[in-house]
Amino acid sequence: MTKLLQWLFGVSLLGALWALVTFDLLDLSLPQTYREVAWPMPFYLLISFGCYSLATVGYRVATFNDCEEAAKELQEQIKEAKEDLRRKDTAEFSSCAGRRSLVECSATFEEICSLF
Amino acid sequence: MASRKTSRPNRDSGDKYSVLLPTYNERENLPLIVWLLVKYFGESGFNYEIIVIDDGSPDGTLEVAEQLQKVYGEDKILLRPRAKKLGLGTAYIHGMKHASGNFIIIMDADLSHHPKFIPEFIQKQKEGDYDLVSGTRYRGNGGVYGWDLRRKLIRSLLAEVLYFFIFFLLFFFSPPLPPLVHSRGANFLAQVLLRPGASDLTGSFRLYKKKVLESLVEQCVSKGYVFQMEMIVRARQLNYTIGEVPISFVDRVYGESKLGGNEIVSYAKGLLMLFATT
Ligand SMILES: Nc1nc2c(ncn2[C@@H]2O[C@H](COP(=O)(O)OP(=O)(O)OP(=O)(O)O)[C@@H](O)[C@H]2O)c(=O)[nH]1
Ligand SMILES: [Mg+2]
């Protein structure tokens, strides 16, 4: 049974129970107070759930961290990385000159350079 | 739970970490993320490999990856490209098949996930012998950069809806309720309010034991966006233990977001799918 079916089953069970008490379907002659408490119950539950959700969402948004430092650090590191990579690519370029045709090498080198 | 504590990370332990980097048009980002990965793995001394799964990016990401492979070596950078864009979920599966590590790290290649957190993930994993460690933007020192109020609001709302959907709707009728993460002595209310292991359901910066990831992937049916969410849900269903590390999430600097369209609609669709199939 999928969760969907389980929930449909559960909800209709609760709904039936609620109707049973609220409208006294079985003529159990329940005390009046039971019915008075039962019938607005779904609304109370819905409203308290809504309030709780609003409060948590509000709290989350208010306390959402802004990582200024992390962004700055990343920018620094990007700069550093680019310099280092450019150096490494140059080394790669000179070391591959013996192995491959110069044209091929300079093509790849140019390509890497054009990246930055 | 008798958690085996390793007081110091054992650098010469047999552990190897395979980083999966799915890329689609990440030409500018790939060299930078690889550089950062090499830097932080180098500093912490853990054994690693980087697996780039490029889906035939028209911007030539693969050529850049090949250059990087020359610079850093074929044992460190592995290329497992695919001919066309087949989606993020299957990219992970594809990459995982070729991973030789006993741990797998999944992260975005767009620099929004910073490799500096990886040593923390590893530390955390060792601390509690966790089956998976998830990065979270929503607690501790975690956070985001580059989100305006509107986006924060939408994300917080979504997080709320997701949480209720998943942990109330999906688990409510599953007796026994899966124990929530390792939170010794925490009562139900605390678990609901603090939501251990579930504070960032859609995050995609995670470390898995390889075996755990394999068994999870086997069970997952969703594609794309919902995939990450489903992985955590299934992990909870299978009683895997989850650790969390707060991360800062910096919005991409280069390149374009691949996940356009209406976020909310795709979440909703994914959730309904989970609801109907689990
Ligand atoms: N191999 C592969 N990688 C992909 C695919 N779609 C996205 N990616 C990569 O997956 C990662 C996450 O994608 P993003 O576009 O950053 O998604 P996001 O993080 O939700 O959105 P933004 O950060 O706002 O752009 C990036 O590294 C992408 O390059 C795909 O179809 N195939
Ligand atoms: Mg991204």
From TrEMBL, chain A:
Pathway: Protein modification; protein glycosylation
BP-aspect Gene Ontology terms: GPI anchor biosynthetic process; muscle structure development
Chief location of this protein within or outside the cell: endoplasmic reticulum
Subcellular location: Endoplasmic reticulum membrane
UniProt-listed InterPro entries: DPM3 (IPR013174)
Cellular component GO terms, alphabetical: dolichol-phosphate-mannose synthase complex; endoplasmic reticulum membrane
Keyword field: Coiled coil, Endoplasmic reticulum, Membrane, Transmembrane, Transmembrane helix
Membrane topology: Multi-pass membrane protein
Membrane-crossing segments per the record: 43-62
Pfam family, one: DPM3
Subunit organization: Component of the dolichol-phosphate mannose (DPM) synthase complex.
Alphabetized PANTHER family for the sequence: DOLICHOL-PHOSPHATE MANNOSYLTRANSFERASE SUBUNIT 3
Chain's role: Stabilizer subunit of the dolichol-phosphate mannose (DPM) synthase complex; tethers catalytic subunit to the ER.
Protein name: Dolichol-phosphate mannosyltransferase subunit 3
From TrEMBL, chain B:
GO BP: any one term: GPI anchor biosynthetic process
Superkingdom of source: Eukaryota
InterPro entries for this protein: DPM1-like, Glyco_trans_2-like, Nucleotide-diphossugar_trans
Segments passing through the bilayer: 157-174
Catalytic activity: a di-trans,poly-cis-dolichyl phosphate + GDP-alpha-D-mannose = a di-trans,poly-cis-dolichyl beta-D-mannosyl phosphate + GDP
Keywords assigned: Endoplasmic reticulum, Glycosyltransferase, Membrane, Transferase, Transmembrane, Transmembrane helix
Function: Transfers mannose from GDP-mannose to dolichol monophosphate to form dolichol phosphate mannose (Dol-P-Man) which is the mannosyl donor in pathways leading to N-glycosylation, glycosyl phosphatidylinositol membrane anchoring, and O-mannosylation of proteins; catalytic subunit of the dolichol-phosphate mannose (DPM) synthase complex.
Family label: Belongs to the glycosyltransferase 2 family.
Name of the protein in its database record: Dolichol-phosphate mannosyltransferase subunit 1
Organism this protein belongs to: Oreochromis niloticus (Nile tilapia)
Name of the gene: DPM1
